[in-house]
Amino acid sequence: MRELFLMDVDLRRVPLLETDVLVIGSGIAALEAALAAAETASVLIITKAAPEESNTFYAQGGVAASLSPEDDPEKHIRDTLVAGVGLCDEAAVRKMVLEGRERIRELMAWGVPFDREDGGDIALTLEGGHSSRRVLHAEGDATGKAIAKTVLARVAANPNITLMPGVFAVDLLHHERTCYGAIALEGGGRKRRILRIEARATVLASGGACCIYRETTNPDVATGDGMAMAYRAGATLADMEFVQMHPTTLYLAGARRFLISEAVRGEGAVLVNRRGERFMEKVHPLKDLAPRDIVCRAIMEEMARGSEPNVYLDLSPIPPARIRERFPNILALCAQYGLDITKDRIPVRPAAHYFMGGVRTGLDASTDVRRLFACGEVACVGVHGANRLASNSLLEGLVFGREAGLNAAKIARESQAGFPERTIRRRIERKRIPLDVEDVRRSLRSLVSRACGIYRDGESLANAISMLDFWQQYVYAEEFASPSGFELQNMLQVAQLVARCALSRKESRGAHQRREFPNADDAGWKRHSIVSRLDFEK
Q1: pLDDT for 410-450, tens place per residue?
Q2: For the CA atoms of 345, 263, 210, 169, what is the dihedral angle to 10 degrees?
């Protein structure tokens, strides 16, 4: 817990970039923040990979909004609060749902090709935990891609925004709990270039951290960099123990853990065991469309009963023509492995999918580090509680991304540029040791999957914390020439926070299930977990 920065840097010797607002990330929250800030400020977006490499781009199911005459915002708010199992911030949920409808209409005006019914009305589907059909989708099961492409085009056309892909944010420039921008790495190895980016306001929108798990639906970039950077800068993080597993990911030897959208069950598919028997009917009144934490546990219990590595998704209740129209990408992906989903069952099991916790923010997306804002999956504004309602994440990114951008631009107008320090010295003595980064990464992901998965227990969590502490002693002491090593340091930091918060919460609630404490404890634990680096330095 002692680290301050990940690099020793003499800032006088590295190139300087200056901007009003720095945005770190390229998902929907980052892009929305950049567009909002660019109304009055200059904006620089940096992203460590191609702009398309984000959870937004891979989102299949859709975005939830109460647009139907048969629906209303109060029902959407109620469904979100129920799914969050007592830990949602109702004011944040209300803001997301009410303002989200305007953001969706804005996307339509920008040209996002949301699917429509034959009569021309927006097509809406049902997903788990929703009491009404309110999930919009585009290009069948490629909603995130359609949204990202449209918004990226607007970003590219905006003269106030500069987008720099392939630039890895190593750490925030911070001094006395004020953020002044970031240290970044462009390229790697001998061609690497360290950049000093000084900004009057900074927006963290770098996504989640599910790559700390061995099996995840997330792209490889989801390594928790923003959470770790904010933590090192002294920001407060909240609810890090709540990591949502997606119930249905493709489970085939050699295949990536490809997400099978919840919308498939919304269209009528059912979960069955090896014998073809449905099992969700006995578990929850919503059956196969119960909240995700409940479905995940039911699948794990069914697998244990039959000593099976997976269960199956049976699409036979859906007409084949509807499958081809609604799920073309899932159809094509499964066909690569010899599965015809109009006839064959899909083998599935849960995998890590989404962080409900993150950098704690207010409704204005501000953190408790001055001039630093956060939005999207890296942030915890309180809309998801202990268990995210399906398809609320894109909506959150739209609403609070815009909030972050507007407020960052306002702060930028009131702030002076210039980082008061000219050198950065790490608190950990630097060492040069032989280190196989990929081997440590694999070991870390296996450890987190065992200790911090769907079911947890105190002994496993304590052992995991001890091992993570040990790995940190020598991994933190290394300075790397490429982003992969810095990613590993960030993954170690986030994994430790997840394990510590999970060990501390002695109850079961939503995505956090403790074997020794199988019930929710409202009297003792109907509250957020709060953690800050400063807590460990007192």
Answers
A1: 999 998 878 887 666 665 666 677 889 999 999 999 999 99
A2: 130
Question: Which of the 8 DSSP states describes residue 140?
Answer: T
Between CA 355 and CA 244 the distance in angstroms is 6
Q: What is the pLDDT of residue 479?
A: 76
1-34 in b/e form (b: 16+ CB < 10 A) is eebebbbebebeeeeebebbbbbbbbbbbbbbbb
Q: What is the pLDDT of residue 1?
A: 35
* pLDDT band, very low/low/confident/very high, at 23 (cuts 50, 70, 90): very high
Whether 502 has a pLDDT exceeding 90, the answer reads: yes
Q: Identify the CATH assignment for 9-242+356-414 out of 3.50.50.60, 3.30.450.40, 3.30.310.80, 3.30.450.20.
A: 3.50.50.60
* Residue 51 pLDDT class (50, 70, 90 cuts): confident
Cβ–Cβ < 8 Å for 188, 481: yes
* Domain covering 248-350, topology: Flavocytochrome C3; Chain A, domain 1 (3.90.700)
* Average pLDDT over every residue of 172-200: 89
Catalytic residue check, 275: no
- CATH pick for 428-537 out of 3.50.50.60, 1.10.3720.10, 1.20.58.100, 2.60.40.1120: 1.20.58.100
- Active-site entry in 103, 200, 292, 388: 292
Pairing mode, strands 193-204 and 16-24? parallel
